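Project outcomes to date are best conveyed with an example. Our students and postdoctoral researchers have been running inverse folding experiments weekly, and each run begins with a structure described purely in tokens. The record below, which covers 538 residues, was selected by the lab manager from last quarter's runs and is presented without edits.
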């Protein structure tokens, strides 16, 4: 499939995805119409949808991107007007709705005037320059749209229910973001790529909260909004002031260097130079990621104990490094893939050696390492046999298969913290999270995603998008349950292993010492019945 065909396909998919996204609030609007009340629905996402659609529509017009950008967001603008009309009609606090819409419409009016005046040439700018400025505003509008659920996420965490989340809009947003990110990569549009990476991260976190606090299992309790009058007045003043401050800030901080630097890869560097720069950055970032476990390993060495550290991230690091090293060799990506992941192989072996030395449960460590080594050995044998041509595959065919296994190994590595995230939620402390590894992975993912986009390697692109989302969710949990403010309580691991030998001995002694006459009594639990057999004297 040629690149032009791929662009055409994803242009159509992007249009369909956007149509679905802007139509997703229709289910909520229908419920409001039936109930004659807005309930817990917020006006901010709808106003943000209007702003996002209008600014992107103007950007598409100036960039001559008639489909899907101009046409689909023009449709989104009409949908937003209809949704806001229904919301305003059934809203009890119409004054707040009018104030919110006034702020959004004022900002949109100013941006529209700039687009018209600049497009006619009265600002001394070319059409390309005006569209670049509008692209920045479009990203800001997109952030306001996908940051809109954050207005209610605090309520979700406070009341322990996801009734505040418009799940239909979130579902449509996830599908929309993935398609638009792919389309942005194909046409090399940095505005589309940047904002959709951010969107995927926000939507992933929102869906995690929705799954945890599902309204079906965590319904909204009666009297949740029973607050005293002073608090309600304080809250309304805060909400009223926030949009004005944001609008003022966005208008006064126009020449932001953060956005200015986005155009540099396209204007000041050739494609080959950009690939070289990000190849070096990718190699350096991965080496930094390799050093992140060293802080925890040093603590293990000083404490002479592994503590709450898990072995799973370390064996996953070994598997991930080895498989990507083989993939880099077969795909002829000697730097940074082959060389850097070869270093990762050796680093993982050193970390595992220290972990094994100070582990109290060496049997479990040996079993974990043995399982990983067996899997690596099988894949290594396949890589050697296939690379020599004995499987009737080309070198590219073998590297493609290894690419899939490399992505799976990476999933294991970056999902390794999930082994402890359940403990974080259970004990309300982030002491289980290996923060240095998460931070190193965050920076590493962004650089590798850019490098993968430049060389059009879909194994790198797909897996690093997922990594970015996972790291974001982990950091949010760490912030909520910071070990400094939520330390691990004493006795957190009491009775976590009911089948340990120490517990069994205590149970045996207590039963034997309580009353020897109960020796032949049939206990209802087969576990205790089996424990008595070694002390029988018959």
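After processing, the design step wrote out the following sequence:
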């Amino acid at each position: 499939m040629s690149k032009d065909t791929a662009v055409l396909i994803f242009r159509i998919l992007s249009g369909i995805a956007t149509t679905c996204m802007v139509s997703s609030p229709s289910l909520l609007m229908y419920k409001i119409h039936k109930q004659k009340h807005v309930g817990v629905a917020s006006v901010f996402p709808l106003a943000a949808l209007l702003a996002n659609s209008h600014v992107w529509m103007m950007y598409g017009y100036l960039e001559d991107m008639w489909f899907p950008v101009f046409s689909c967001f023009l449709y989104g603008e009409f949908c937003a007007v209809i949704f806001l009309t229904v919301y305003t009609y059934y809203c009890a606090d119409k004054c707040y709705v009018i104030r919110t819409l006034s702020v959004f419409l004022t900002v949109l009016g100013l941006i529209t005037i700039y687009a018209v005046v600049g497009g006619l040439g009265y600002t001394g700018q070319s059409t390309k320059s005006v569209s670049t400025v509008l692209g920045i505003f479009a990203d800001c509008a997109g952030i306001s749209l996908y940051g809109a659920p954050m207005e209610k996420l605090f309520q979700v965490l406070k009341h322990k229910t996801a009734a505040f989340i418009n799940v239909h809009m979130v579902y449509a947003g996830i599908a929309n973001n993935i398609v638009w990110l792919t389309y942005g990569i194909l046409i090399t549009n940095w505005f589309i790529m940047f904002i959709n990476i951010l969107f995927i991260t926000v939507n992933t976190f929102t869906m995690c909260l929705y799954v945890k606090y599902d309204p079906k299992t965590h319904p909204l309790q009666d009297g949740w909004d029973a607050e005293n009058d002073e608090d309600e007045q304080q809250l309304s003043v805060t909400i009223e002031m926030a949009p004005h401050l944001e609008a003022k800030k966005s208008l006064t901080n126009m020449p932001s260097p953060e956005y200015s630097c986005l155009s540099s890869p396209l204007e000041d560097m050739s494609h080959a130079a950009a690939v070289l720069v990000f190849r070096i950055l990718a190699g350096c970032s991965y080496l930094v990621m390799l050093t992140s476990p060293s802080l925890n390993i040093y603590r293990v060495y000083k404490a002479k104990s592994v503590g709450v550290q898990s072995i799973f991230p370390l064996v996953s690091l070994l598997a991930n490094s080895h498989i990507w090293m083989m993939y880099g060799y077969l795909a002829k990506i000697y730097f940074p893939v082959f060389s850097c992941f070869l270093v990762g192989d050796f680093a993982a072996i050193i970390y595992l050696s220290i972990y094994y030395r100070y582990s109290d449960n060496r049997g479990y460590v040996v079993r974990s390492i043995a399982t990983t080594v067996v899997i690596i050995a099988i894949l290594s044998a396949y890589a050697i046999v296939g690379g020599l041509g004995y499987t009737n595959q080309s070198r590219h065919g073998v590297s493609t298969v290894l690419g899939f296994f490399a992505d799976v190994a990476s999933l294991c590595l970056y999902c390794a913290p999930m082994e402890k995230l359940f403990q974080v939620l259970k004990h309300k402390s982030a002491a289980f999270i290996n923060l240095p590894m998460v931070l190193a992975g965050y920076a590493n993912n962004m650089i590798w995603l850019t490098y993968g986009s430049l060389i059009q390697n879909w194994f790198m692109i797909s897996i690093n998008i997922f990594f970015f989302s996972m790291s974001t969710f982990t950091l949010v949990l760490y912030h909520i349950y910071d070990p400094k403010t939520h330390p691990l309580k004493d006795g957190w691991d009491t009775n976590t292993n009911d089948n340990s030998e120490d517990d069994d001995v205590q149970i045996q002694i207590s039963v034997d010492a309580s009353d020897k006459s109960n020796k032949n009594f049939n206990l209802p639990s087969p576990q205790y019945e089996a424990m008595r057999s070694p002390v029988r004297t018959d």
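The radius of gyration is 28 Å. The chain is about 75% helix and 0% strand. The training component of this project remains on track.
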